Amino acid sequence: MHAPAEPAPFPLAVARTALELFAGHGFDATSVDQIAAACGISRSTFFRQFGSKEDVVFADHAALLELLRGFLARPHEDPWLAVCEAAEQVFAHFAAEDAPAGLRYAVVNAHPALRDKELVTVFRYEKLFDAYLRGALPALDPLVPVRFAAAVIATHNYLLREFMRGARPVTGAQMRAALDDVRRLFGVLDGPAEPARGGAPAGGAAAGGAPKGAGQAVGGHAGVTRAGGASRAADDVVVAVFSRSTPPADITAAVRRALDGTT
Predict the structure, then answer these.
(1) pLDDT tens across 122-156, in order?
(2) Spatial separation of the C-alpha atoms in residues 144 and 256, rounded to whole Å
(3) Cβ distance 226 to 262 under 8 Å?
(4) How does DSSP classify residue 77?
(5) Sheet containing 225-227: which strands, arranged edge to edge?
(6) Cβ neighbours of residue 260 under 8 Å, at least 6 residues apart?
(7) pLDDT, tens digit, for every residue of 25-81?
(8) CA distances from 244 to 64, 166, 249, 250, 251 (A)
(9) Which of 97, 116, 228, 249 has the fewest CB atoms within 10 Å, i.e. the most exposed one?
(10) How wide is the angle at C-alpha 42 spanned by C-alphas 38 and 47, nearest 5°?
């Protein structure tokens, strides 16, 4: 994985000091003058670096988005993997912080305006990933990169929040495994994904099915897809979607045709 350089230290140092003040005194009760004084900078320097008091809370995200744009602008053999690696880099940054990440979580969740701003910030990552996939894979149905980007962001954010609030330890390897499952669900990585609780697939058709170019529709029923292309391999994965009225015998025959590579 090609790791980007870390964000510039000055704005992040100011942001961490601000988070400590917000956590200790409350967001509304902490002024820009107090933050500037604690950091040894002027009020005007603060506003040159950050547009507002709210912006300082998300200084990491602004810097990371710029770094990820540069990362995704490089050539990548596998665009799906590149998106997942970009998400991993965001997690790695916040996981390395540990204490400041927990402070940010507490401050944001205590203030409704910050929660709203966080949603906008998260959507910027989603838009970045969607736009990158559209450019890298122009033949895709436009809905596929939208769904893939949303699934990657949802998976990443769930685990990152678990880490930030101290609910359970989350490692980079666990994040990679979870994002690998997202790729499997979309048919762009070989091997089965973990099923969701209740026996229903965790993604697949509900997440948009296999993207164009990731599999080949076979059999006489729409939705029967063999991941990995037309050539049959020992570890082929069959994703099948049928209506409730489809007879069991027809389902069995269609899946067998998919496994056999016949139409």
Answers:
(1) 999 999 999 999 999 999 999 999 999 999 999 99
(2) 27
(3) no
(4) S
(5) 215-217, 225-227, 237-239
(6) 232
(7) 989 999 999 999 999 999 999 998 888 888 888 888 888 999 999 999 999 999 999
(8) 46, 42, 13, 12, 11
(9) 249
(10) 105
Residue 15 vs residues 20, 68, 135, 138, 149: alpha-carbon distances, Å = 9, 20, 34, 39, 28
Do the beta carbons of residue 15 and residue 62 sit within 8 Å?
Answer: no
* Residues of the chain above pLDDT 70, percent: 67
Per DSSP, helices labelled H in the chain are 9-25, 32-39, 43-49, 53-57, 59-73, 79-97, 99-109, 112-136, 143-164, 172-185, 248-260
Note whether 144 and 59 are within 8 A (CB). Answer: no
The C-alpha atoms of residue 215 and residue 237 are separated, in whole angstroms, by: 10
3-state secondary structure 202-248: CCHHHHCCCCECCEEECCCCCCCEEECCCCCCCCCEEECCCCCCCCH
Tokens 């990371």 belong to which residue? Answer: 64
Residue 136 token pair: 């890298």
What token pair was written down for 32? 């820009």
The span from the CA of 177 to the CA of 87, in Å, is 12
Contact between residue 203 and residue 186 where contact means Cβ atoms under 8 Å apart: yes
Q: Tokens 């209506």 sit at which residue?
A: 243
Under 8 Å between Cβ of 53 and 151 = no
Which tokens in the block code for residue 226? 């063999």
User: Can you tell me the distance from the alpha carbon of 115 to that of 105, in angstroms, rounded to the nearest whole number?
Assistant: 10
Place of tokens 């895709």: 140
